[in-house]
Amino acid sequence: MKITSLLKNRANLLPEWRYLSGTYLLGMAGFTFFRLLTFLQEYYQLEYLPEGQRFWPIVQSFLMGIRFDTVTSAYLLLPAFLLLLIPSLRNGAAGWWYGGVFAITTGLYLFAFFVCAADLPYFHHFNMRTNMGILISAGTGDSDFLWEMVWGEWRYYWALAPLLLTSWFFASRHLSLLRGVLFAEGAKRKRPAAGPAMTLGMAALFAGALWGRLSVQGPISPATAYFSDYGFPNLLSLNPFYTFFLSWKDHFDPEYNRVHFMGDQEAVSNVQHYLGIEKSEFDSPVARRVMPDSVASQKPNVVFVIMESMSADKMGRFGNPDKLTPFMDSLATESLMFDSIFTAGIHTFAGVYAALYSMPVVKRHHPLVEMKPHAGIAQTLKQHGYQTIYFTTHDQEFDHVGAFLRKNGFDRIVSKPDYPKEKVLSALGVPDDYLYHHAIGEFNKLSQNGRPFFGAIMTGSDHGPYVIPEYFKPRHPERIKGVVEYVDWSVSRFLKEAAAQPWFHNTIFVFTGDHGVTVEKHYDLPLSFIHTPMIVYAPKLLGTPRRVGKLGSQLDACPTLMGLLGLPWVNNTLGIDLLRQNRRYAIAYADDKYAVLDKDYLYISREYGVNSLYHYSVGDQQDVLRENAAKAEEMRRYAESMFQVSQYLRENGLTHWLEP
């Protein structure tokens, strides 16, 4: 009898292979169920697809998803396949052997379904499939804050229902399948003569499933999922356990979180050209001496506020119709307002690192953990006689922030243990309005000795688990919008209270975000996730309010501030003074992809070699890379030179502070 005819009739298969094929179908049902839930959860993203092109790309997503689910299932079933090889060639096996196969297979599938369930809120928040980025801050600084924060967010709990339902369905049907096939009387019958041929055929099918494609050039990869110009259909087709497993596997490679875009010296030469450095007089090739036109006679205080998840898209100034930030919209008209600032990444540690030390993050690398010396603004201002202090709402050990900042210029870190216990409302610690109030008390103490101070404040209220104090009543019933109202109100109270202090008129206030949020999802890296406002407020020091529309980066915040302070320094960073220089491109790394922007185009380079160029200023979602290859190449070279140099500087101890 031919193998093909046997495989067409599942009843004629060996019991072991009937069991595997049945388990595969069960697993596929579970994965399809979670893909359907993801589609329903993200249904609103269809509005980003052109009219008339919404149905077929989604159908393609589900069809492509079958391929990724099949590859995932092949890996999950591989232990069972190997364990069933010997019984398939002999007259079966003992019951305990099959029981072991059942236990291993069930455990693997239930873990895969857990990842799929976790992917529902993860995908909604980050607009990417689950990868090792979900654990990027886990365990940093011996802190349990991450887990407290996750379990404290009730919005994530709904994903438990489909997880429990799918797990129950799979486990119960899987057990029935085991009993009905492997423990059946038929499993003990004499094996057909074609048994070895069937096993060989099954092995060939298994190899094909693991490969995932017909081409012999290489196995299926996430690049295969990018079959359209539109982010949502492409991402929908991926299996989250597959993406998590790939990044977990790669994580054991010591080179995984490093970049190898080009040689270090080539990158250095490019960056020196971009920054206008003809010859460096320091050991760092990017260090350049900055002398102000005139030295300030008075040293202003600086309060640098990094606002959690402060996307520009939350402000009415940038088109939000919900009137969530009336105070900040008004404040922008009274300030030096930078409208086109883009963050260096999508995580808080990236925002703290880029905003205070003007260096980009690279891939999933966590620079705060390394404890390398950095030429940040705190250390620079200390050399000019400033006192430095940093405030966070929660545990300072999370993300290794406390240890890193103390080593790099901050005299003191104020965190959760420093606040009254009754003010701590959640895992995120104290709410924003109390954080600001507490900071003012500390600034009052610092101001008494006559020396200027630099205070950095990292807020926390606009992050789940969202807690709005009972004394604030938002207009919007939706908590995510209500908390933005609360954040705006807290800023207004902060500046009102600060205005009553004797140091207020000699203080520069800076408000910017650590990163944004996915307000819109036109592209698989939403611009709202990396577009943040930067408001510089000092009515007695900065003169006439004005808008600065030129392109800028989070890396430029501190060099621009140093220019406003009028103090000499050595800029050993990749940031520039936006009031005196022009930035060619802004760059941002988001775990498995990076973005490059100017005022018109967005270039996205993804792992596994999928690159796209979008004319985002006109809202076009068509990939125009082929028609603009020279532009895309220029943007790629700029970004990769910057990332390569930042890695080179950090690894060779060249990011340190330098005497002006």
Detailed description of the structure:
It is a single chain. This protein has 660 residues and is of the alpha/beta class. It has two domains: 249 residues, no CATH class; 286 residues, Alkaline Phosphatase, subunit A. 43% of the residues lie in helices and 11% in strands. It contains 19 helices and 15 strands. The N terminus is likely disordered.
Draw up the topology in text.
Elements: H1 3-8, H2 15-41, H3 55-89, H4 95-126, H5 145-151, H6 160-182, H7 195-211, H8 231-237, H9 240-251, H10 264-275, E1 288-290, E2 301-307, H11 326-333, E3 336-342, H12 348-357, H13 367-370, H14 377-382, E4 387-392, H15 401-407, E5 412-414, H16 432-447, E6 453-458, H17 479-499, E7 507-513, E8 531-537, E9 546-548, E10 552-553, H18 557-565, E11 569-571, E12 586-589, E13 593-597, E14 602-606, E15 610-614, H19 629-651
Parallel strand pairs: 2-6, 2-7, 3-9, 3-10, 4-5, 4-6
Antiparallel strand pairs: 1-11, 3-8, 7-8, 12-13, 13-14, 14-15
